[in-house]
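Chain A, query sequence.
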Amino acid sequence: MIRALTPADIGNVQTLMTASADKLNAPRLCSSDNSILVADDSLVSRRLLEAVLRKWGFDVVLVSSGTEAWQVLQREDAPKLAILDWMMPGLSGPEVCSLVRENRASAAYTYIILLTSRNEKEDLIAGMEAGADDYLVKPFDNNELKVRLGPGRRIVELQSQLLAAQEALRVQATQDSLTGLWNRPTIHEILARELSRSVREEIPLGIIMGDLDHFKDVNDTHGHQAGDHVLREVAQRMGNSIRVYDAAGRYGGEEFLLILPGCDEESTLQTAERIRTQLTQFPIETGEGESLTITASFGGTALPRGVETSPETLIKLADTALYRAKQAGRNRSEFKPFNVAVS
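Chain A, predicted structure.
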C-alpha cells in the first residue's frame, strides 16, 4: 500500500535524486506493448510505483508533469498504458486524458488510470468523462492496482491483435499475394491519383507496361513453381530499379504496370531500359537447382505537363508501345508519345 512519507523516506529520496539526476532529466521510452507511463509530480510516488510495476514485468517511463506526459503520449513509441496523477504541474491528469482522446493520431488506444486523492462522486465522474478508463483513490493497495491494470493490459493486447489483423486484411486487399507488388485494382487507383496530382502540380507522368517474353514456356517446361519463382524475382528486381515514390503493380499474369511521377519521355524510356537490363543481366534461380535467363518487353508513354487525360488512355498508349516491342522481336523497350495519340 502506498503510505504517507516518513523522514526515512525523505532521506532515501534525496539519495536517489543525487545518484539518478541524469536519468531523471528525460523519460526513457519503450516501444513494447508492456511499457507503461507513470506521471506524478511526487518523486517518492513515482519511485514506489516504478518499483512495483517493474516487479510485475512492466517497462516503466517516468515523468513529473502533465505537460511531459502529453509529450510522451504523442510519440509513435508511446506506452499504451498510463497512470496519471490528478494534480500535476502544467496539465492535470484529466486534461491529459482529454487531449489524448481528442487528438488520436493513430489507431492505437491508450488505456489510462487516474490517481486521485479526491473521493467525491462528482470528481470521479469528471475524471471518467475526461477520458480515463479507470481510477484509483489514494492511498491504494498494490494488489488493487494490479487488478485494475489487468483489464488495461488485456485491452492493449487485444487491440494489437486487431490492428495486426486489419493490416493483414489491408495487405491482402491491395497487394498481389505472389509478388508483393500492388494488385491490379490498387495500381489503377494509384494511377488515377497520380494523374490528378500531375494536372494539379503541372508535372509530367510516365507509365510503363512490361511483359515477360515467352513466359508460358517457363511454366510448360519447368512447372508452375518455377514460374512463381521467376515472377517473384522479377518483381523484386523491378522494385529495386525504381524510386521509392514510384509504383509497381502486377497487372495480370506476367504483365506489370509501373507509374513514374515526374518522368518525361526520356526518363520513362531510361527507366524501362534499366529494368529490362536488370532482368536479363543475371539468370534467375528457379528453386529447383536450375537457373533461367529471362527477357521482357516494355512499352511506355508519358503525359506532358498540364495535360488532362484518363488512366485508360495512358494504359492504352503504353500497351500499344508494348505491342510494338513484341512485334519488333521482344527484349526491347518502345515509347509511344502522348501527342501522337491525341493528334
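The chain has two domains: 7-171, 184-342. The CA atoms of residues 105 and 213 lie 47 Å apart.
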